[in-house]
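Form 7-S
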Amino acid sequence: MHLDKHRPASSGRTLSRFAKAALGTLLLIGAGGAAIAQNMVVRSTGPSASSYPAGKKMANDAKISLRAQDQVTILTKSGTRVLKGPGTFSLAQGSSSTSSASRRLSRFITNRGSSRARTGAVRAAGSVAVTTPNNPNLWFLDMTKGGKFCVANPNGLVVWRPDYTGSATASIVEPTNGNVTEIAWRKGNPLKAWPKAVLPVTDGASYRLLGSNISQSVEVNFVVLKNQPTDLDDAASMLIENGCTGQLDLLVETLNLNNEETEDQG
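Output:
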């Protein structure tokens, strides 16, 4: 990253812990044929939304009954499934394959920042159309997104900007006293270390960010996680539990980019 600065099990309980750890490892590395015990709801809208709240986990043999206007997005071992009512759906259908996206996603949620986002350019009719890149890391703070932001590593927080075709600055304002701290990016660099020496990354801290080439400021509220999640289930659960909806959306979108989203309609 370029920044500017054997003991055998003695009881059924012990064996259970070992089994859960092994299951998490299989998910993390995307091992072929690994069976994930549960599926997780990540989005839910419509009349039945209260029956399928975000974070709800269901076994592979579970059935979901939806009414008209219902739409539920399920995170599975092979990607996401979007279920649209009315109809009754079995989670066992279409869940037998394991995707290499699990590997890519594991790097996305455990990445220490070594990846550099790159803009895609497509030449059309003598001009170059630039596509805004996606945030390459779940724990990079997107300076254009406000709301609750879950921080996995307070000592290594990185600020990411989607447009890094030129140099830029950003002002970070402390709402309580109005103090302003400025950070700057060189041309071509999307990443900048958060100035933790003057702006502590603590649970509940709130800051307002305004970029030099962005029309509106955003307010960010930090939620410092006690533990960094190591797999997909942990990451989704922690984001849902703490209300970090922007990162949850990014997690789902990133998985969908590497997977064909399966849509089932009744």
